[in-house]
Amino acid sequence: MKRSFSLLLFFLFILVGCSAQDSKKPVSASSSDGKLQVGLVFDVGGRGDKSFNDSAYNGLEMAKAKHGVNFIYVEPQGEGADREAALRQMAVDPDIGLIIGVGMLFSEDIAAIAAEFPDKKFVCIDYIHLPKVVVPANLQGIVFEEKKGSFLAGALAALITRTKTVGFIGGMESSVIKKFERGFIEGVHSINPAVKVISGYIGMTGSAFSDPAKGRELALGQYGRGADIIYQAAGASGLGVIEAAKESRALVICTDRDQEPEAPGFVLTSMTKAVDRALLKTVETVLDGSFKGGGVSVFGLADRYTDYVYNKKNASLIGSKNHQQLEDIRKKLIAREIVVDETAVVQ
Predict the structure, then answer these.
(1) What percentage of the chain exceeds 90 in pLDDT?
(2) Checking phi first, is residue 120 left (phi over 0); if not, alpha (psi -120 to 50) or beta?
């Protein structure tokens, strides 16, 4: 069922080129009935990316099924220039108690709006703590140990590669995605320093997360240069990398969610960030009164919020011996016997 937003937001969507398709308008998952109402604004790429955004949506579906919460969502247009307006519109809605921004691109806007609306609770996934910006007491940042997860992905790639050349393709060239790249390279070279890593990025703006054609083009180029495994951290653009893996009869390591269904037999593994479970847990803190803002919550390897996929569908690709070695590395990362600095800003 759709939820009616104000004419201000409606006309804003028209001005930025909003299509008439229902999927691009504010949508309500259920009617307001006195229970907690949550508002979510998607990252660039929107719902249906089969990755980061879909995992966030699934988290609210889990909260609805388990606790009966209601939620609405908005998909920013283009590069997400309207994300600030969408967040603000939710903030002024008296029925919405928790507002979620999905992705690092929300960090500055959501911190400013949270400060303006201290009676609302805010959450930002992949929050970037900006210099000289105090995290408001009603804002909780959620981050994952993606550099450590990427280290595991790199170690696996080095164990599996036959050509001794692997690739990395990121979406927007940014400090967060650079952590994926650097963690992957460190993991590769921890196993075999002689393995070559080819890196590439889709672009420099938010739209880089929603360009599967460019992802496919870059991936075909890397496979053509000898890479037999590519690690992609590119949002919806990663779907193009997966397509290139199928075309090249090569392997791809995916991110955020298990993307094996997109290319059975070609997805070596996925470095997963349990955005859905993290959001469910966060909603539960709001419900039980234990929500804590003013800082950042880390969801890491120890509880497998950050993890990699190993199951019957990819066990034959990975092999039991490699899986055991990867588990040993995971335990050493948790125990800090192998040190990967998640806090370092990667330029």
Answers:
(1) 74
(2) beta
At which residue do the structure tokens 């164990």 appear? 159
Q: Residues with Cβ < 8 Å from 312, sequence gap 6 or more? A: none
Specify the pTM.
0.84
pLDDT at 78 over 90: no
Is it true that domain 146-272+310-334 has CATH number 3.40.50.2300? yes
> How high is the pLDDT of residue 21?
35
CA-based nearest residue to 310, from 296, 299, 324, 298: 324
Q: At residue 200, does pLDDT exceed 50?
A: yes
The residues spanned by each domain of the chain are 7-144+275-299, 146-272+310-334
Cα atoms in the 13 Å half-sphere on the side-chain side of 201: 16
Torsion angle, alpha carbons of 74, 61, 280, 210, to 10: -40
Q: What integer best gives the mean pLDDT of the chain?
A: 88
Angle value at C-alpha 59, between 145 and 331, nearest 5 degrees: 30
- pLDDT bracket for residue 19 (50, 70, 90): very low
Which CATH superfamily does the domain covering 7-144+275-299 fall into?
Answer: Response regulator (3.40.50.2300)
Q: Identical fold at 7-144+275-299 and 146-272+310-334?
A: yes
Q: What's the maximum distance between 2 C-alpha atoms anywhere in the chain?
A: 60
Please say whether the beta carbons of 344 and 312 come within 8 A: no
How far is residue 190's CA from residue 175's CA, in Å, rounded to a whole number?
22
